[in-house]
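mind reviewing this stuff:

——
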Amino acid sequence: MAGGFVGYSRSPGSRTVVRVVVAGDRGTGKSSLIAAAASESFQENVPSVLPPTRLPADFFPDHVPVTLIDTSSSLENRGKLNEELKRADAIVLTYACDQPLTLSHLCSHWLHELRRLEVKVPVIVVGCKLDLRDENNQMSLEQVMSPIMQKFREIETCIECSAATMIQVPEAFYYAQKAVLHPTSPLFDQENQCLRERCARALRRIFVLCDHDMDGALNDVELNEFQVKCFNAPLQPDEIVVVKRVVHEKIPAGVNQLGLTLTGFLFLHALFIEKGRIETTWAVLRKFGYDDDLKLRDDFFPVPSKRAPDQSVELTSEAMEFLSGVFRLFDTDDDGALQPTELDELFCTAPESPWDGAPYKDATERTARGDISLNAFLSQGCKRTLLLREIPEDGAKKFLSNQEFLAACDVAVFVYDSSDEKSWKSTKELLLNVARHGEESGYGVPSLLISAKDDLDPHPVAIRDSLKVSQKLGIEAPIPLSMKLSNPHNIFGRIISAAEHPHLGIPETETGRKRKQYQQLFNRSLIYVSIGAAVTVVGLAGYRAYAANRSTSN
């Protein structure tokens, strides 16, 4: 059947070239395979290891070129081999069809070596020298490779070829390229033979977008619109009939009197993948904005750009009202809250529910039954929650080297162990660095000191010095905190207060204070000079008027 659901669309994603490394035992035909693919003919005298070989874009339906890397299996070249394997986009492992031991060694050594090196790219197993295989060997490729592929799931495809007779030589590298451009793993769970959850969610979203009349099925018109959007060609009426018949025969719930249901839509894509037509499903996903990780691409989210580093973006009142409407739509029992099942239904077309991860999983306002309230639901959209970013001590220098680092920071909180003098000294040094950085960059930031582990005996130097430093910098005295003895909620209130009144907590070093005083003095001098100049001008004008009057009177 031709057309849409089995049509082909060139959508290789963001790849501009595919790097394929060819490895295997000596004498299994690696170099001959590469030479035959590049020249489209059998080469008698081939070097033991070929230089990198490029197959041009017009060799492949996706129009993406492939670079073939030949390798040596000798011990002295093992380091270079491992390096190439780690750089590969895909790996072709070869064995010789006339040497069964090379296939055994491929399983016992090469596949295990890839796992040892933690190389996680598609593997294509290629049996070379098919023309030399013993004619008495009647075992099919499927019989030989099926148990091997069950054990090594990283194997995407197995193929036999002959460089001497040019049997399936281009196909070996086509499958390698295809495994990179249209990978199976993100879409299909081969062990359980089903679509992966993330893929099913993406296809569910596409189905909903194409179901314009929202009746839960794609009618013939909607199917054709989907077909044209993804493959630039309409389905013929008899093709639509065949599609529906195939689905109904395998899964009756996939078709009803209205058209193709979501169940049938998902079944079709699982069928394409099982039949080796995974590029069809990838074409659909990419047309609707998905990248290779099944996330919607950035160009599908026109987020307003920030004009300044410390600027934030919030939803409009119209957007908040829209979200409120979505909440009410999925609150099927009208209890003013979303139960887990209602929340799952709301986000069934998203890659995952945002409420399953931090910070919303544990910090969201919930009802007595544990459901999500409307305020909690809207809080994620408005983004008016406190954001904390912990910066490790050894990473502070990296951030401070960025002149605009502090611009996006509303409050800097310095936490130290009050019982440890060394902890305080490190914190003091960091605080002074941040203060100096703020003065030099013009991005001064309110700062708070938190004296943690207040339940332990405080170090006398830390107590004395911390009070002295806070007074010297003009910031609030250290806030004592014990997670064992007190509730930390008050701390967060203090942080918010510091953000609301930033001018009260920006640290000021002695150097910065002098610079500020000098600037103020300089500004006053400019004012005095300006006033003096004005007086002088007025005086000159008065004198000239007086002189003119005097001349007239004379």
Observations:
- The chain has five domains: 4-181, 194-298, 317-382, 393-508, 514-554.
- The CA atoms of residues 526 and 532 lie 10 Å apart.
